Structure formats: structure tokens, C-alpha cells
Amino acid sequence: MIELVDATKSYLQGRRVVEAVRGVSLRVAGGEFVAIMGPSGSGKSTLMHLMGALDIPSTGRAVFLGRDLQSLSDSQRSQFRRTRIGFVFQQFNLLPTLTAAENVALPLMLDGIARRAALAKANDRLKQVALDHRAGHFPDEMSGGEMQRVAVARALIADPDAVLCDEPTGNLDTITSREILTLLAALPEPDRRAVVMVTHDPAAAAFGTRLVKVRDGRVESDDPVRK
Ligand code: ADP
Ligand code: ADP
């Protein structure tokens, strides 16, 4: 479903060129829950951004469901992302002035779907993450775990083919982390949906079905997780 072919991503830092990702080839199939681990600065987030069409490779290719992402314009790519891919970040990234349901519904409303219909769907998604009783609450009235549930519900709003998570438990305690990871682990569907998660935490990675270790912008190892 997601394929990187000899993908490289370089950034200019002042006059220095930093190769964050160096010639990575990687395929992720529906049904997989791929954990990506590696030291700080090893290129994990960049790799996730390439997989999620947040960014395009400097050289090589990123292919999502057979679509070559670099052949899309920025606005096509952003439309593609909104409809096909859900994102979960460490900082939750909820808008403080919107309720839980409004935060979840926002991607649909941005896509032109009427508020009522979008909110109805948002409430279904909040039910899916066992948070429907908080639909009318604002982020500052919720715990970290609840905010991350809202973020997961938002990531699922368009029924995406992939859910990409960047340190989703980085701001959560152990018990809450396990709840979020259990939720994420239930999302992959064979031949349909994949989950990719960047994490520092080996206990979080253990929830995955596959562990990719990254070092200096390259894939160091890529193995199934033994349960
Ligand atoms: P990780 O997620 O493993 O910490 P990143 O992918 O964030 O690694 O970063 C890999 C390298 O690329 C680092 O050296 C980082 O400084 C650099 N980098 C990442 N994003 C940018 C950017 N937008 N501009 C410049 N350099 C960047
Ligand atoms: P970090 O990896 O430094 O903790 P984030 O994971 O919050 O930062 O964001 C990484 C990148 O993803 C940023 O370049 C940001 O612009 C982008 N981003 C953050 N949130 C979203 C979002 N909800 N949708 C699309 N892109 C986002």
C-alpha cells in the first residue's frame, strides 16, 4: 500500500545539506502495524512524513496505493492526505476553541461536508474510541489520554487507508499509553488499512506487528515482532 523506493530526503541547514533519509526502500501492506524506532535525529519523523505524503522525497519515489506522490501538485497531495491518511501526533494538535466533536469533524468540514453530517460522523468516531460522553468538552477539560483519543477519532474520520503516528504516547503515562496503543493496534485491516508509528519506547513498539529500526537515515533492521 505504501512504498518508498530508494527514497532520499535532504534538508538545507544554513549552508549544510543534511540527508535525513538516505536511500530507503520500504513497503507497508494493509493489516500491518509498523513501529519505527531509532535514536533522536536518525530520520524517523522524516520517514513518516514521506510515507504520509506530508513531504516528497528529494530523490527516489514514494508511492501510495499505486499513486506516485511526487506527480501530484501540493494541493492534490493535501487533498489525497485528507481523504486517505490519518495522522496522530505527540502533542495531540487539537484546536483549543473547538469541542472534541468539532475537532474530530473539522477535516470533513474543511472538505465541504455540511456541519450536521460532519458532527454526526464525528460522534460515531468518538463512540469508537469510547469517548462519546466527552463530545461537547473542550481540550483543556480533558486528560492527555482523552485528548489523544480525540486525535485518534479525528485521524479515523475519513476512514483512511493508513494511520501514521509520530510518538503518539510521548506525552502519556504508562497506563494511558497502553490504552492508546491497544486502540491503535485494533486499527489495521488486512488488505485495507495499515498503521505506522514512530516511537522511542520499546514497550510501545512491542504492540506492532513489525519493527523497523532506523539509524543515520537508513534502515538498520526490519523484522516481524514476535508475540
Ligand atoms: P527523528 O525523527 O529520528 O528525530 P528527524 O527525521 O526529525 O529525526 O530528523 C532527521 C535529521 O533531519 C535531523 O538531523 C534533523 O535536524 C534534520 N531535519 C528534519 N527536518 C528538518 C527540516 N524541516 N529542516 C532542516 N533539517 C531537518
Ligand atoms: P514533532 O515531530 O517535531 O513533534 P509534529 O509531529 O507535531 O512535530 O509535526 C511534524 C510535522 O507535521 C510538522 O511539519 C507539521 O507542520 C506537520 N503537521 C503537524 N500536525 C499536522 C496535521 N494535523 N496535519 C498535517 N500536518 C501536520
Q: What can you tell me about this protein's structure?
A:
The chain has 227 residues and is an alpha/beta fold. It has one domain (2-224): 3-Layer(aba) Sandwich (Rossmann fold), CATH 3.40.50. The chain contains 7 helices and 10 strands. The strands form 2 sheets. A 6-stranded mixed sheet has the order 6-7-8-3-9-10. Helix 6 links the parallel strand 7 and strand 8 (194-198). Helix 3 packs parallel to helix 5 (144-156). The two termini are 24 Å apart. Bound molecules: adenosine-5'-diphosphate (2 copies).
User: How many whole angstroms does the radius of gyration measure?
Assistant: 17 Å
Number of strands: 10
CATH class: Alpha Beta
How is the CATH topology named?
Rossmann fold
Order of helix and strand elements from N to C terminus? EEEHEEHEHHHEHEHEE
What ligands are attached or bound here? adenosine-5'-diphosphate
Helix percentage: 25-40%
Average the pLDDT over all residues and give the rounded result: 95
Largest sheet: 6 strands, mixed
What is the CATH H-level superfamily?
A: P-loop containing nucleotide triphosphate hydrolases
Total count of helical runs of at least 4 residues: 7
From the N-terminal CA to the C-terminal CA, the straight-line distance is 24 Å
Strand content: 25-35%
- Label the overall shape: globular
What are the segments in which pLDDT stays under 50 over at least 5 consecutive residues?
none
Tell me the strand order in the biggest sheet: 6-7-8-3-9-10
What structural category characterises the helix and strand content?
A: alpha/beta
CATH architecture: 3-Layer(aba) Sandwich
